[in-house]
Amino acid sequence: xxxxxxxxxxxxxxxxxxxxxxxxxxxxxxxxxxxxxxxxxxxxxxxxxxxxxxxxxxxxxxxxxxxxxxxxxxxxxxxxxxxxxxxxxxxxxxxxxxxxxxxxxxxxxxxxxxxxxxxxxxxxxxxxxxxxxxxxxxxxxxxxxxxxxxxxxxxxxxxxxxxxxxxxxxxxxxxxxxxxxxxxxxxxxxxxxxxxxxxxxxxxxxxxxxxxxxxxxxxxxxxxxxxxxxxxxxxxxxxxxxxxxxxxxxxxxxxxxxxxxxxxxxxxxxxxxxxxxxxxxxxxxxxxxxxxxxxxxxxxxxxxxxxxxxxxxxxxxxxxxxxxxxxxxxxxxxxxxxxxxxxxxxxxxxxxxxxxxxxxxxxxxxxxxxxxxxxxxxxxxxxxxxxxxxxxxxxxxx
Length: 398
Hints:
The protein is mainly α. The protein has 17 helices and no strands. α13 (281-302) packs antiparallel against α14. The longest helix has 31 residues, at 21-51. The radius of gyration is 19 Å and the shape is globular.
């Protein structure tokens, strides 16, 4: 055990010292966005009870955030001539406003609007931050740099989401969104202080931003992203009632289980970043997406067993973010002239999948809390097929 802990500590130290301060600042942004997006899954019952609505109706707050992501990403076209650093600062300011609005929302409709506003900067931030991370990366380590930027979101699930769940249990779910808003101020400072002014992208004009969409490669990636993540979110959107009502865990243990889910995300993200540089992003994404299909199917059958449910949950959340870095890297490579829009589009696809997944998972709840996982299998399988087509036909070109 001593050697295991020492080895683990050494790995964490190596990862930390390899991070440039600029990448840490970018990761701070994804940390705030990650808490804002994923914390709703853990606090869904508290929000539903406080606003006097059902859990499936409360699932609309997940979809509202996701739809905000889809609406916000195209805003980058209007800002394409602005310095990348200034765009990042503006997006973080919008995140701050949206989450403070959620913290004080008095009813269903106002919270729905606040969640939509909170989602607006999400995809755009990832699009810009991915390009900045790639420009700051050492040669041959662009995938790892992007995975470090995305790591903030996985840390959000490791610590931020369990903290939000715990605060909702002890105090109020509103405190979680208040903290995210305050974190936005910190992110603004560190982006201003640590992120350098990097060379902007060549302006290809309004139409040039969309030219990459004329080829099939980006559509395969976007389709795999939307459907693959939609499959996971059929199940993950309703993870808390599944763990308590099917797997038999107490409500007090949900916080610890969310830590386990977050740990899976951290490991999956960092490992896939390294593997994508060593092999190819397409190969890593295809293999991981295939694994997700199998895990979702196993969750349907084995979730009544608490140990199996917990282990499979960690594997599925690891897969969720192990496929994220390859998708983010690939979309930028296949979007010449529209890299910023492409990077945002993959987050649009991710969150469109989340919205569809949360909706379909809510419909599947009529059969019981196990059925959202089964409903997610066809989505995940289709995502795997699209990834396999991309790998076979296009990976060698990128």
